[in-house]
Write a structure and sequence with these properties.
Blueprint (H helix, E strand, L loop, with lengths): L5 H4 L12 H13 L5 E5 L6 H13 L1 H5 L1 H6 L8 H8 L5 E5 L6 H11 L9 E6 L6 H12 L5 E7 L7 H4 L3 E4 L5 H14 L6 H11 L3 H18 L7 H7 L5 H12 L3 H13 L4 H21 L9 H10 L5 H18 L5 H20 L21
Helix pairs in contact: 7-8, 10-11, 11-12, 11-13, 14-15, 14-19, 15-19, 16-18, 18-19
Bound molecules: adenosine-5'-triphosphate, magnesium ion and zinc ion (ZN).
């Protein structure tokens, strides 16, 4: 059997398998139950969060024979059965009731005319033909206009699902004729759970912290998380014993700057130890980490300090337990004001580094400067307010 990437192999086949988009799936299932299905939908949201997947399941459900014939099943289950002829055609990719159209590469008026021509013909089997138009924001204005008429008076069998990562680029004339669904970024926890399911099904042993790291890197996109997992599995098979996936292995593959290095920075600041800080800077430079990435991580690290200082808890810190514990321990090393001053300074440095040449040198200096900033805050010598002092009003004399 040929190898299939995880994102495709584990593409959800039912509404209930779609993670974290219940606000969308529930509404669609309700409309199926009530027999109130619209003709135009916009699915918007980040890459890899389930837009195409949801559109395909919707199309499958609309044509499922069991859902059409069995009112109890429709009311109680409201999922494509996966067994009738239509569902099997969908699953094997041979159904003629779904057409996927990539607007990024077919965006001319002629392409839309051809599509419109196609839309006039009803389905040979089943009830509805569903047109998924991906990356719809890439259509030209003329192409959108060519579409408008079809959308205003669609044939009863036609349903359009426009998918886009850039909702704001869709003209109001189109979006106001559609039902809009905004897909959410998938929470880290849900990504982690899904990756764990995949690993279990593939009989792969994995450390929970390793999956968390992958999830963090994916920043809310399930597809990205699954692609990274593919890569990690291949990497671990080569490098680790028995192909188990370890935190260390993932950190290495992703060239991930680990939390310890971040704590080295805050430790050096707390201990007022410039030698230690220079070691960290050298470590970053020698290992070929990107300085901007490093500073970004450092801002996130400091953000975690602020969260813990303000909440006295780590519930909003997405890190392994041992690391959370460390934030709790270290939070008292600085005042919130000192942390905020460091954040401000780093954000400023990030901007400046973009335009600098002596890059590594500046980076080292910036890290060293953090020690001074915190020292100045604690000794009360840092001018906190940056608002200029009020000017004395000049009064006109009247004589
Ligand atoms: N909400 C989700 N629940 C479970 N798996 C998901 C979810 N979203 C995405 N996936 C996984 O990611 C893969 C890609 O998802 P999908 O094609 O639906 O993304 P998309 O939102 O259409 O992305 P793009 O904007 O790049 O087209 C799916 O095959 C599935 O394995
Ligand atoms: Mg898609
Ligand atoms: Zn079916």
């Amino acid at each position: 059997m040929s190898y299939q990437v995880i994102a495709r192999k584990y593409r959800p086949a039912k509404f209930s398998d779609i993670t974290a988009q219940e606000h969308v799936t529930r509404t669609i299932q309700n409309s199926l139950r009530m027999g109130r299905v619209g003709h135009g939908y916009i699915f918007s949201g980040l890459r890899g969060v389930g837009k195409t997947t949801a559109a395909r399941i919707f199309a499958k459900a609309l044509n499922c024979q069991k859902l059409m014939d069995d009112p109890d099943y429709l009311q109680q289950v409201t999922e494509p059965c996966g067994e009738c002829e239509s569902c099997r055609d969908f699953d094997s990719g041979t159904s003629l009731n779904i057409s996927e159209f990539d607007a990024a590469s077919n965006n001319s008026v002629d392409d839309i005319r051809a599509l419109r021509e196609n839309v006039r013909y009803g389905p040979q089997k089943g009830k509805y033909r569903v047109y998924i138009i991906d990356e719809v924001h890439m259509l030209s204005i003329a192409a959108f206009n060519a579409f408008l008429k079809t959308l205003e008076e669609p044939p009863p069998h036609a349903i359009f699902i426009f998918a886009t990562t850039e909702l704001h680029k869709i003209p109001a004339t189109i979006s106001s004729r559609c039902q809009r669904f905004n897909f959410k970024r998938i929470p880290l926890e849900d990504i982690q759970k899904q990756l764990q399911l995949v690993c279990d099904a593939e009989h792969i042993t994995v450390e929970g912290d390793a999956l968390q790291l992958i999830g963090r890197k994916a920043q809310g996109s399930m597809r990205d998380a699954q692609s990274i997992l593919d890569q990690v599995i291949a990497f671990s098979a080569e490098n680790d014993h028995e192909g188990a996936i370890s935190y260390q292995g993932v950190a290495e593959l992703l060239n991930y700057i680990d939390d310890d290095t971040m704590f080295d920075v805050t430790d050096a600041v707390a201990a007022q130890n410039p030698a230690k800080m220079l070691d960290v800077a050298q470590f970053v430079i020698k290992n070929g980490y990107d300085e901007q990435d490093f500073l970004e991580k450092l801002v996130e690290h400091l953000r975690n300090f602020l969260v813990v200082q303000n909440l006295s808890s780590t519930r909003l810190v997405e890190r392994p337990d041992a690391v959370r514990e460390r934030y709790l321990q270290d939070a008292g090393n600085f005042t919130p004001l000192a942390v905020m001053q460091m954040v401000d300074f780093i954000l400023q440095t990030q901007k400046e580094l973009k335009f600098q040449f002596e890059y590594q040198f500046r980076f080292e200096l910036a890290l060293l400067k953090l020690i001074d900033i915190v020292h100045a805050v604690s000794s009360g010598t840092l001018p906190v307010a940056t608002v200029p002092p009020p000017q004395k009003k000049k009064f006109l004399t009247t004589n």
